[in-house]
Amino acid sequence: MLHRARHGWVEVVSGVMFSGKSEELIRRIRRALIAGRRVQLFKSHLDDRYGGQFRISSHDGRQIDAEPVSSSVQVAEKVRRETQVVAIDEAQFLDDGICEVVDALADAGMRVIVAGTDMDFRGEPFGPMGLLLARAERIDKLNAICVVCGDPATRNQRLIDGEPAPAEGPTIQVGGAESYEARCRRCHEVPKRDRAQKELFRTTLPAPPTA
Ligand code: ADP
Ligand code: ZN
Fold this sequence. Notes:
7-stranded mixed sheet
């Protein structure tokens, strides 16, 4: 234990889909490997973009594989005592217990890097991400490019057969007929919620001044 830094911390890399969170996580892990740190990488079993295997290699030939997890308890069980850096990708799919787990790992002296989409398709905090952002020592919120207007994108647009998906749909929807786009606040559409918000706006705000 003597070789371990005495203080750990939590870093969160958040943002919309396609904003480069995984790229940034991989960059940080590569650098940790170059520094000779012992690294473990976890990712939600719900994310199968890499065909079930997600391997990160550093230039000096060291490599680590992502370990799939379905709950915060599994992360706690799989972290080895000698690990110095713990990275977790797609954390939005995990349960709120992940907050206690990453706090405990940081308290034990580990550097914890968490990446995840901070908002669901409605623009609401996604899973435990809001709680993780509140607890982290360092936060980076990345933007993508809005596919409609080219501005910085902060929202996940869910589409079903090319049309904006209604707010009532399930929060987690992997695979199937739907797809996702990165969009800015202005171009992001959530049909039912938009109607409700316009109604609220109309009834609670004073009428705009007339010239
Ligand atoms: P995330 O983990 O945040 O979903 P990734 O690291 O997997 O993001 O992917 C980021 C890459 O996605 C970018 O480097 C870019 O090549 C590509 N990309 C595709 N669509 C977009 C978009 N609308 N805005 C920005 N990058 C995009
Ligand atoms: Zn836009």
